[in-house]
Amino acid sequence: MSGVVFPSGLRLEGLGRHHPRRRFQCGEEAVENWLATKALQHQEKHLSVTKVLVDADAGIAGYYTLATGQVDFGDLPSEVGRELPRRQLPVAILAWLGVDVVQQGRGLGRLLIAQALRDCWEAGKTFAFVAVILDCLNDAGKAFYVRWDFRELPGRPYRLFVSAKQLDKMMAGR
């Protein structure tokens, strides 16, 4: 299956030393600081992978970071965890996502999350996981992800998930 089509003049690529990470500004200090100070370091240590959306001037228009992790079956809603082993379960993590302030309002966040979810789905063909999980920084972020069918984990209003089964349905267009 093909990936998401980004607007002309923008291309998605793996984060490298040559990318101007410290110039990225999205209005969320934590998202900016992660890209500037931790993303490349974590990628080099094989803790996460960051993809950057690069504009025609080689600036970073947006980015997302994916990682893997585990969640206890008891942290999942009963309808998801009901048939799963009672242990730590593998999950994909959408760790970070941001769009530069200059590029905001163009739908790039929507395209970046679509590609991040597609990357997770593709990876799930090789490395299984039960859900994609993310942590929201605030209510605005939460509202954005809820539009993508992410739901709250029980008792964790800012930790959201979409089950692997739901992700399969999304990718099938259902």
User: Helical residue percent?
Assistant: 25-40%
Q: Could you tell me the mean pLDDT?
A: 95
Our count of helices gives 5
- Which percent band covers the strand fraction? 25-35%
Structural class: alpha+beta
**Widest sheet, order of strands:** 1-2-3-4-5-7-6
Report the uncertain regions. none
Number of domains: 1
Q: Do you know the CATH topology? A: Aminopeptidase
Estimated radius of gyration: 16 Å
User: Which sheet architecture does the biggest sheet show?
Assistant: 7 strands, mixed
Report the oligomer: single chain
The CATH architecture is 3-Layer(aba) Sandwich
CATH secondary-structure class: Alpha Beta
Q: Going by CATH, what is the homologous superfamily?
A: Gcn5-related N-acetyltransferase (GNAT)
Structure description:
The protein has one domain (11-172): 3-Layer(aba) Sandwich (Aminopeptidase). The radius of gyration is 16 Å and the shape is globular. It is built from five helices and seven strands; from the N terminus they run E-H-E-E-H-E-H-E-H-E-E-H. The relative contact order is 0.16. The protein has helices at residues 29-44, 78-81, 108-123, 139-146, 164-172; strands spanning 11-14, 49-54, 60-72, 88-99, 131-135, 151-153, 156-163. The chain is α+β, with helices and mostly antiparallel strands.
